[in-house]
Write a structure and sequence with these properties.
Order of helices and strands: EEHHHH
Strand content: 5-15%
Strand order of the largest sheet: 1-2
Radius of gyration: 28 Å
Number of domains: 2
Largest sheet: 2 strands, antiparallel
Number of strands: 2
Number of helices: 4
Helix content: 55-70%
Shape: elongated
């Protein structure tokens, strides 16, 4: 947007010039960045949101979305295959999962499984705040470790 600005020359003549008009940019801020965003504050949010550790974890993009996608996919396959095997007369070999299954049935096992997935992702993100390489390594290993019971379940379901 263009605006007119009145300026006075050294000879005392008043004149008009065209200048670009736009939002003022505070020193040290990039143009086009809303005030507060550069400081980690979420515009329109309650005071203090985005500054605390929990706020920083909840209001930012995940660091390792590909590793998390594999982890979630494999965890979903794990619970689905566990349900199939239980239906076919198999048994749960994880003692903690077995306890949850005995008390809360398959629905409780699903809730337990995805609570552990969310906790694991949260821990990876928390660790990554200080040690990004370690957070990524843990996220990848979570997916790899989760692939083991999936592979074993698939082997058990194969005919022959």
């Amino acid at each position: 947007m263009l605006a007119q600005q009145r300026q006075s020359g050294s000879s005392g003549e008043a004149g008009l010039s065209l200048v670009a008009a736009g939002p003022a940019v505070a020193p040290g801020m990039a143009p086009g960045v809303a005030p507060g965003v550069a400081q980690g504050v979420v515009p329109g949010a309650a005071p203090g949101v985005g500054r605390s550790l929990l706020g920083r974890l909840l209001l930012r993009r995940l660091r390792y979305p590909n590793a998390y996608a594999w982890f979630i996919l494999l965890s979903t396959l794990d619970i689905l295959l566990t349900g199939v095997l239980l239906h076919l007369g198999g048994r749960e070999v994880n003692v903690v999962a077995l306890t949850v299954l005995e008390h809360y049935h398959l629905v409780g096992l699903v809730v337990f499984k995805f609570a552990t997935v969310l906790l694991s992702i949260g821990m990876c993100e928390l660790i990554a705040l200080r040690r990004p390489h370690l957070g990524r390594k843990i996220a990848v290993w979570a997916a790899v470790i989760t692939a083991v019971p999936v592979a074993l379940s698939l082997l058990m379901l194969m005919p022959g």
